[in-house]
Each structure stands twice: as structure tokens, then as C-alpha cells.
Amino acid sequence: MNKARRNPLNTAAAHLILLTYTVIALFPVFVILINSFKTRKAIFREPLALPSSETFSTVGYETVFKQGDFFLYFQNSMIVTVCSLFFILLFGAMAAFALAEYRFRGNTLMGLYLALGIMIPIRIGTVAILEMMVATGLVNTLLALILVYTAQGLPLAVFILSEFMKQVSDDLKNAGRIDGLSEYTIFFRLVLPLVRPAMATVAVFNMIPIWNDLWFPLILAPAEATKTLTLGSQVFIGQFVTDWNAVLSALSMAILPVLVLYVIFSRQLIRGITSGAVK
Fold first, then answer.
1. pLDDT at residue number 88
2. Contact 81, 207 (CB under 8 A)
3. Which residues on adjacent β-strands are paired with residue 218?
4. Residue 159: which H helix or E strand, with range?
5. Number of alpha carbons in the 13 Å side-chain half-sphere of residue 48
6. What is the pLDDT of residue 275?
7. Bigger pLDDT: 233 or 20?
8. What is the helix, strand, coil percentage profile of the chain, to 5?
9. How confident is the model at residue 279 (pLDDT cuts 50, 70, 90)?
10. Alpha-helix residue ranges (DSSP H) falling in 36-69
11. Distance between CA 114 and CA 95 in Å, rounded?
């Protein structure tokens, strides 16, 4: 009886904690969205109030579309993010399959070496990366950002995907080999469909840092033609005067792709997290 009484209390407490965390996480997004539709005075006078007939204004969005080349920045961010995620998932899945499937000397050591990339921030090597990009002529190109983000995301991708691929049935793969399937066919047709939740998890975990990054676009691709959305939003922030309407409007539009991606992959993301937690 006591156990039956504790379970509802534990469930209610867990839901309360999750609800509190959700409110805390979404509160800044809510504040940004409502203030992007208000006048400058209303933003500072009542930052938590909803837009009214007196305070409603779209001047921030008008400034973003007129003054800044928003569509170019958005396009650059999409190209960098999508290409980086593609290479992270492709090369990460291949490396994870090799580590999980084939036993060779140094297998464990190789896995530990790749895991070090999770613990060591890539920004430590910014100077060396910049020198390399200058030597190869890749400064002010989107390719430079794609290469850096791919290298940044591979350790986590290999770490997560290798654990999932170890759970794929050996009988299934051996049956494919008996039927004459090549290793590439087994990888792409048999293994990858079974680890889609894990790949969705890797994609979400990598997309947000790539999309929001300001460090490497500022250092490797600061030219107008290669600015990303995060870097392009900085044009509205001055040393003495900041156009907060434009800044909040740009941030509101920058949030949308992340929300859309989460809505699309939320089910796969939850399956990936729970599958990794329960063996």
C-alpha cells in the first residue's frame, strides 16, 4: 500500500521538476519573441508584458530585412549546418561501424582517442586552425566552417553511434553476408535504418552548437558574403547604440529552424535517448 502511494507522488514530483525545467528553458525564448513585436520604449518599460495595440511594432523585422542581408546570412547558416551534419553523420557512422564491427589491434585505443575530442574543446586549437585555413586559402569560405564543425562533431557522433551499433544483431549482418551483400550494402541498408534514433540524437546535439556558433564564423569567415546568421546579427549591436528591436527580431527568426528540427526529430530523439539508457 505504501509503495502504491509513493508511486503517484514520485510521478507527480518528476512531472513537476520536468515542467519547471521546461518553463525555465522556454522563458528566454518567450521573452525574445514577445519583445521582437514591441517598440523600443516598451521593451525596456515592460519587458515581460505582451504586445498591445499601443506597444505593437514590427520595426525590428523591417530593419532586419532592409538593413541586413538576412536571407544571405540565413542561407549561409543553412548550408554550413546541413553540410556539417551530413558529414558528421556519414563519417561518424562509418567510423562507429568499423569500431563496433571489426576487432583489430588498437580498437579500444582508437575509441579512447576519438573520445578525447569530447573532452578537449576545439577552440583551443583556434590559432592552428586559422593558420591552416590561411595556408590552404580557405579563409572567408563556407568550406572552412564545414570542415571545422565536422571535426568538432565527429567524436560525439562516434561515441554515441558505436554503442548503438554494438546492439545490432550479428545474425542479421551475417545473414546479409551469406546472401552476398557487400559491407557497404550491409552498412547502408541493414545497419543505418536500425540506428536512426541515435543519428537523430547526434544531429540535434550537433546542430544547435553549429547554428548558434559565433566564434569560428567571426574568425574564419567574417566577409559579408560568408557571414552566418549569428554573425550577421551583430551588425545591429554597436559600441554605443544597439538596435534592440532588430536584434530581437533577428534572434526570433534564428530560433525557428531549431524549433522546426526538434519538432521533426523529437520522436526519434526521445527514442534514441531512452534506447541508450535502457540496454
1. 95
2. yes
3. none
4. helix 142-165
5. 1
6. 56
7. 20
8. 80, 0, 20
9. very low
10. 40-45, 59-67
11. 10
Instruction: Give yes or no for residue 157 having a pLDDT over 60.
Output: yes
How many other CB atoms are found less than 10 A from the CB of residue 49?
A: 13
Q: Residue 81 CA to chain centroid, in angstroms?
A: 8
Rounded to whole angstroms, the Cα distance separating 119 from 90 reads 22
Could you read off the pLDDT of 163-188 as tens digits, one per residue? 888 888 888 888 888 888 888 898 88
State the DSSP code for 50: P
Burial (CB count <10 Å: 0-12, 13-18, 19+), residue 25: exposed
Q: Where are the alpha helices (DSSP H) in 36-141?
A: 40-45, 59-67, 70-101, 107-119, 126-136
Does residue 75 surpass a pLDDT of 50? Answer: yes
Task: Specify whether the CB–CB gap between 255 and 205 falls below 8 A.
Answer: no
Residue the block writes with cell 545474425: 171
Chain centroid to Cα 229, Å, comes to: 14
Q: How many CB atoms lie within 10 A of CB 94?
A: 15
- Residues 122-147 have a mean pLDDT of 93
Closest CA to 63 of 198, 193, 243, 254: 243
Cα-based torsion angle of the residue sequence 63, 83, 145, 230 in order, rounded to the nearest 10 degrees: 20
Residues of the chain above pLDDT 90, percent: 29
Question: In whole angstroms, what is the distance from residue 50 CA to residue 68 CA?
Answer: 27
Q: Is a pLDDT exceeding 80 seen at residue 238?
A: no
d(CA 215, CA 262): 24
Q: Which three cell numbers stand for residue 240?
A: 554605443
CA torsion, ordered 66, 68, 70, 73, to nearest 10 deg: 160
Contact 85, 210 (CB under 8 A): yes
Rounded distance between C-alpha atoms, residue 248 and residue 61, angstroms:
9
* pLDDT given for residue 217 in this prediction: 94
